[in-house]
Design brief:
Layout (H helix, E strand, L loop, with lengths): L2 H13 L1 E4 L7 E5 L4 E8 L4 H15 L6 E11 L1 H19 L3 E8 L4 H13 L4 E5 L1
Parallel strand pairs: 3-4, 4-5, 5-6
Antiparallel strand pairs: 1-2, 2-3
């Protein structure tokens, strides 16, 4: 294997799964490429949303080059700020592109059954996207 091929293989292995533990201002992120099941949950109010989510966006770009036959992305956010909402749309757009490329993609928007604002936010995202988008009250 050439040195360049080895570097690419090492990079791919390192990118395989991404886990970011939650803080009081950032959500838990689990991106499991082995299963094709991804999740973002908790609170998303980082001071630098773009900086926080850059790893996620880059990881999704890499995953999109060789995705599994089915990808499920679960979102269960208690609260998020405006800058996070813009980055969430960037994530959704990447998933939409994957779907339009012929891959099975499902977005599941989990929300507390008594949280009308989060339900409406999910409906707003659902209306903007051309990708299977399920609203899941919990």
């Amino acid at each position: 294997m050439s040195p360049e091929s080895q570097i690419k293989a090492n990079f791919a292995a390192a990118m395989r799964n991404l886990v970011i533990e939650p803080t009081s201002k950032t959500p838990k992120v689990i991106l499991n490429a082995d299963l094709g099941i991804f999740e973002i949950s908790g609170r998303s109010i980082p001071e630098d949303s773009i900086g926080f989510y850059r790893k996620v966006l880059d990881w999704l770009d890499e995953y999109s080059k060789n995705p599994l036959p089915e990808t499920i992305f679960k979102f269960h956010l208690e609260y998020f700020n405006t800058s996070s909402s813009k980055v969430l749309l960037d994530i959704f757009r990447r998933l939409e592109r994957l779907h339009k490329a012929g891959h099975k993609v499902v977005i599941r928007w989990h929300y507390d059954a008594d949280d009308e604002d989060m339900a409406e936010t999910g409906q707003d995202y659902q209306a903007l996207l051309d990708v299977p988008f399920e609203l899941v009250p919990v």
